[in-house]
Amino acid sequence: MRTLTVPLTLINLQDDGFHLLVEIVVFGEKQFAVVDTGASRSVFDKGLMEKNIVDLAVSEETQAATIFSTSTTLLGVIPQLKIGALTLKSYAGVALDLQGVNDTYLQLGHPAIAAIIGGDILMAYQAKIDYQKKLLRFYK
């Protein structure tokens, strides 16, 4: 089994908790994503998906909850998603409006995010988080 190691950034949410950010490459651009072990699946910013995918479909399950929001979901295929050395091709992406999250992050001096990496990817690659070393490990 091959191990892929990706650096994490720990951000402080006004001394009231922390989020882990990971750098991703989606639609050929470097972006940040929150690593959320409590999210059942990964989601991407609606604006980013609308800008880059022509054939978006409204999900039959119109409500999807994350730790951030509840809203209508859109579905589309992301040609390539990179999380460090992990490359996912033709990833079936779910889009949610992450603008509120980004407004809050920017107000707190943190970078905007393009996605939330959730349980679908974390489980598929048996991900492990090393908080002390600030690393995310995928096992392929």
TrEMBL record:
Keyword Nucleus: no
GO molecular function: hydrolase activity
InterPro entries: Peptidase_aspartic_dom_sf
EC number: 3.4.23.-
Gene3D superfamilies from the UniProt entry: Acid Proteases
Top-level taxon of origin: Bacteria
UniProt key word Thylakoid: no
Keywords of the record: Hydrolase
Protein's name according to its UniProt entry: Retropepsin-like aspartic protease
